[in-house]
Specification:
Blueprint (H helix, E strand, L loop, with lengths): L1 H18 L3 H34 L3 E2 L1 H8 L2 H33 L6 H15 L6 H8 L20 H10 L1 H30 L4 H11 L4 H32 L7 H41 L16 H25 L2 H8 L4 E4 L12 H9 L4 E8 L5 E3 L6 H4 L10 H4 L20 H8 L4 E6 L8 H11 L6 E5 L2 H10 L4 E6 L3 E2 L9 E5 L5 H9 L3 E5 L4 H8 L5 E4 L2 H9 L5 H10 L10
Parallel strand pairs: 2-3, 2-11, 3-5, 5-6, 6-7, 7-9, 9-10, 10-11
Antiparallel strand pairs: 1-8, 3-4
Helix pairs in contact: 2-4, 2-12, 4-5, 4-6, 7-8, 8-9, 10-11, 14-17, 21-22
């Protein structure tokens, strides 16, 4: 046991030394790499897509025109080129880290320009048709892998929440299949990263590297996976300890006098530290994950460790000057990167901005969706809006319902346009959620309006299913009857519906719900608010929409980290299944629970008096 523990500690020391072999050049590379991606590659992608829209005679992309756009030759060429460049960009980081580790393993010095040129030579090899499978691996597997297997350049890519929610609603077997698919993707990504390492280090074709890796890992896959999981767990614990140590230092050196200005100073220091941590965290995770994988791979497959004792480095004045210059340059580049991302003062001010909270389907976490109990919950939770869905029955009555079929919520396998109101009024829309809500009826829009009047605003989404008749006219007439123009907004994924609303009564505010949106769609005169799927929200989009005096809501946001991230952006509203959780983070200005508790402990009663 003692030998095993010593061996494990020695392994961890070796990996630590490998990671820090030339950390200044590694950090400089990552900063330049991120700046190139944000300042050069991303604008180039946007230019290509804009040109493809011009060729197609389109101003913007949404779900209605997406499929017709993608069928055009120039659009296909654009998509292929964007995916090719993205794959090469991601692969370049992997190449750099693999060769950085190889130099560290062999204790070989390197220059940053020399290693960058080596990486370019490997990129050229990848462009050979026999090696294209590498790019397919990168584009198809790595975006869906966990952080330890995901390159830092892909850390911002997330599976849209509405897609995950759709699978949950579809049933347990569909969600279980999704989780199983994610597990298989991560196992395959783990294996393919070993193949890529063999491809790079042994100068083989991708197919030969795959075969070589299969032979090397024969009967060793489970052992290698277990070793990596154990070491990565140790790394995870270490990173948590580093996080705790950093927080302890912030508290130790904070001015403890209970004033609003001291609280603001502490919060700014924390946000500055978090900005550095958020930049370094995905880099450290993937780098260490890859280095652990490479170390175990080399060890388990019998590669000889030729490192021996680390050579003593002689330090000259020239090296000191060069090292100082590298540190200064790295600090300058880091400052440029953070300024590009948005400084902490701007983020602190954005945290103070009022943000409206809309309860999705009136509240689906604790009550059956789109029902009067859900509306009562949204009112009790002090949400600003209850977001509801409206469709027509066969006899053209307006019902609040999301799906076109009653099966999921009422247990009746019929479409809404095939059923009259007399039958719909008998359906039980609460038992599927909980026995406590049995015999809850599907509400009509008029029932919701009466309950909401004076208590909460409504965000009314008109659902176009192809069977509606005078849906817009009937809805607007009902809202006018109750003089509800100032207590609601009318939303839709269909721009024609919003245009028709404005034609009938311009006093209504309209909301364009966009699952996918790109291009020059900011100046639509019949849209007042844009509701964007949270995955697609970015600073440039928010800036462009606000310049046109448009509000921006994001949907559907339920995860803690995503709520924190978005509340530090210049948004106007959040659509969520859990309005109480959103309200908590809104009150705490996007901060996590730990920092909120620390502030309450250090500066009691000063949280509402933050000064700038």
């Amino acid at each position: 046991m003692e030998v095993t523990m010593k061996s494990c500690l020695q392994t961890l020391r070796n990996i630590r030394n490998d990671c820090l072999w030339d950390w200044k050049r590694l950090l400089a590379f990552e900063i330049v790499y991120k700046l190139f991606g944000g300042l050069v590659l991303l604008p180039f992608f946007q230019l290509l897509i804009r040109k493809s829209l011009d060729f197609s005679g389109l101003q913007y992309l949404n779900m209605q025109v997406l499929f017709s756009w993608i069928q055009r030759p120039f659009s296909i060429l654009t998509v292929v080129l964007v995916l090719l460049l993205l794959g090469l960009y991601v692969f370049y980081e992997i190449i750099f880290l693999v060769f950085y580790y190889e130099h560290a393993w062999n204790k070989q010095a390197f220059t940053l320009p020399g290693l960058l040129i080596t990486c370019l030579q490997q990129v050229r090899r990848t462009l050979h048709p026999k090696n294209w499978s590498i790019l397919l691996t990168i584009l198809c597997l790595l975006p869906f892998s966990v952080l330890l297997l995901k390159p830092s350049s892909l850390s911002g890519i997330r599976i849209p929440e509405y897609f995950i929610d759709f699978l949950r609603e579809a049933g347990t077997r569909y969600y279980a299949a999704y989780l199983l698919a994610l597990l298989l993707i991560n196992l395959l990504a783990f294996y393919m990263l070993h193949v890529i390492a063999v491809f790079l280090l042994q100068d083989k074709s991708f197919r030969a590297a795959f075969q070589e890796c299969r032979l090397l890992l024969k009967k060793r896959k489970c052992r290698l996976l277990l070793q990596n999981l154990i070491m990565m767990a140790v790394v995870g614990i270490f990173l948590l300890l580093v996080y705790a140590f950093a927080i302890a230092l912030l508290v130790l050196f904070a001015d403890k006098e209970n004033t609003a200005s001291n609280m603001t100073a502490f919060l700014l220091n924390y946000m500055q530290w978090r900005q550095y941590a958020d930049f370094l965290y995905p880099i450290i995770l993937f780098s260490i994950g890859l280095f652990v994988m490479l170390y175990n791979f080399k060890s388990i497959c019998g590669y000889q460790d030729t490192r021996g004792e680390a050579r003593k480095r002689t330090i000259s004045w020239k090296q000191i000057l060069l090292g100082t210059g590298e540190l200064i340059l790295t600090a300058l580049l880091l400052g440029i990167y953070f300024d590009y991302q948005g400084n902490v003062y701007e983020r602190l001010q954005l945290a103070e901005k009022p943000v409206a909270i809309a309860a999705h389907r009136a509240g689906t976490t604790f009550t059956p969706e789109n029902t009067l109990p859900a509306l009562a919950y949204a009112i009790q939770a002090k949400a600003d809006y209850a977001e509801i869905d409206v469709q027509q029955s066969r006899d053209k009555k307006l019902y609040v319902m999301h799906d076109v079929n009653f099966k999921r919520t009422a247990g009746v396998n019929k479409n809404i346009w095939d059923v009259d109101s007399s039958e719909i009024d008998t359906y039980d829309a609460g038992s599927y959620f909980s026995y406590a809500y049995r015999n809850t009826r599907l509400p009509r829009l008029e029932d919701i309006i009466r309950k909401a009047d004076g208590n909460i605003k409504l965000m009314i989404e008109l659902k176009k299913n192809g069977h509606e008749k005078n849906l817009v006219e009937d809805t607007v007439a009902l809202l006018q009857k109750y003089k509800f123009q100032k207590q609601c907004v009318i939303a839709s994924m269909d721009l024609e519906i919003l245009q028709r609303v404005k034609e009938i009564d311009p006093s209504f505010q309209t909301v364009y719900i966009a699952p996918v949106a790109y291009g020059n769609y900011y100046e639509l005169p019949y849209v007042d608010i844009y509701s964007i799927e949270s995955t697609f929200v970015n600073k440039s989009m928010l800036r462009a929409l606000h310049q046109q005096n448009k509000q921006v809501f994001v949907w559907t946001v339920n995860r803690d980290k995503e709520l924190q991230r978005l509340l530090l952006m210049d948004i106007d509203g959040i659509v969520t299944d859990n309005p109480e959780l959103a309200a908590f983070y809104k009150t705490s200005k996007g901060r996590d629970v730990l920092i909120s508790d620390l502030l309450a402990w250090l500066y009691p009663q000063k949280d509402e008096a933050v000064s700038y």
